[in-house]
Write a structure and sequence with these properties.
This protein has helices spanning about 15-25, 60-80, 110-125, and strands at about 10, 35-40, 45-50, 50-60, 85-95, 100-105, 130-135, 140-145. It is α+β, with helices and mostly antiparallel strands.
Length: about 150
């Protein structure tokens, strides 16, 4: 349900499968929902100049990022017929293979959730002041470029 309260989207460390499952389970009582869509962003073990990424350390301007995500959230509710929307992003170290972004939308109809999830993920990547430092297996690091 749409809310004017600015939510804290941040989770310390990786977003666990249990957290995701619990979020899904809470929607069983919302019987006007006919469709859900979920995007899970996972840290890749990229090969960058011969070095393998073992983790990403996420930082953010938290207050600013929460405000930006609130604005993205409200604009998305205006654009699509959604019942619910949840956005969570990791802070701190997230190992390759672990989840760092969880976006979950619900609507009475499936077409809305497919369009909304793509819109949301693109907006988050383009506008949210969230930064990742790639940590390599040799413990060296560099700032990640968003793609």
């Amino acid at each position: 349900m749409k809310s004017e309260k600015i939510k804290n989207i941040f989770v310390q460390g990786a977003i666990t499968p249990e957290f995701i499952a619990n979020s899904i389970a809470k929607h069983q009582v919302k019987t006007q929902i006919g469709a859900h869509d979920i995007f899970l962003g996972q840290v890749r073990a990229d090969n960058v100049d011969g070095k393998i990424v073992s983790a990403i350390e996420y930082t953010a301007h938290e207050e600013m990022a929460n405000q930006v995500l609130h604005e993205i959230r409200e604009a998305t509710f205006e654009k699509f017929n959604l019942t619910c929307m949840h956005i969570y992003h990791s802070l701190g170290s997230v190992a390759s293979g672990e989840i760092c972004l969880f976006v979950f939308v619900s609507s009475p109809r499936r077409k809305e959730v497919f369009q909304a999830i793509e819109h949301l993920v693109e907006e988050i990547k383009a506008k949210a002041p969230i930064y990742g430092k790639e940590i390599f297996e040799d413990e060296s690091h560099q700032w990640k470029l968003n793609s």
